[in-house]
Specification:
Low-confidence stretches: 52-62
Order of helices and strands: HHEEEHEEEHHHHHHH
Number of helices: 10
Mean pLDDT: 82
Helix content: 40-55%
Strand content: 15-25%
Radius of gyration: 25 Å
Distance between the termini: 59 Å
Largest sheet: 6 strands, mixed
Amino acid sequence: MVVFDPMNDFLFSKFMGSEGCEKILLSFFNSVFQEVGIKVMESVDIVDNKFISADIKGNKSCILDLRSVDSYQRKVNMELQNRDSYHFVKRSMLYIAREISSSAKEGNFKSLTPHVLINLLNYNFCKGSAYSAKFNIVDIKNIDCVYSDLITIVNVDMVAFRRLKKNIDLNNPLHRWLIFFDKQRPKKIVNKVISMDDNIKLAEKKIKEVLSDEQALHDYYMRELAKMEYISDMETSKEKGMKKGKKEEKLEIASKLKSKGISLEIIAETTNIPISKLKKL
């Protein structure tokens, strides 16, 4: 039986951010808001769903940027980030700045609207961090002193969530969603959360509907292939770096032995470095 990955960025954009998926998106957003103490939404409208990629396979660092507005006129963006990116934080801050700026009508500060950015991360953002974290501009000595509530950033960390293990609560709606998103979870528990949650059931139905289309299925696999190629490239680079490091370390040891007056024959036997090369050290 084929198990599809809901965190595949192409697929995620289709079952969470397409027209007609508002109820699914609302359920997930509210599960996040309840978790971190933000007033829940009554409704949500999908404003824009950008799956930013030069082509489905070639760009291995696609960005899902889903923009919405809720019943309180809060602007809510969501990004799916499947791997650590050096520029991720800077890019997210730039997005927020643009959103805040664009909400000002003809320089009228009163028209500025609160902005919430939800980052769904498939990597560990901070060592030892909780699976959910809310960030505001506050006084670090008195976190109850909020400078502004215009900007709220919420990180949902899949890696940290996996560490909960036995502390998972199926009555917690965010826990149910994160189990559903996690391809590593046993099918038995995934089926259980689907049976418990009508909105997750809708999401599963939408996934099956999307992947019944031949082109969409092709695009899904192209994104999976790009992900595997990226991982392979990173592992190859790491191996090359380790080999280079070991080689340099051996040369350094050989150089120190030579400086101590150890014979080149003994150094060559110990390090497997040719005597001809040792003479040049």
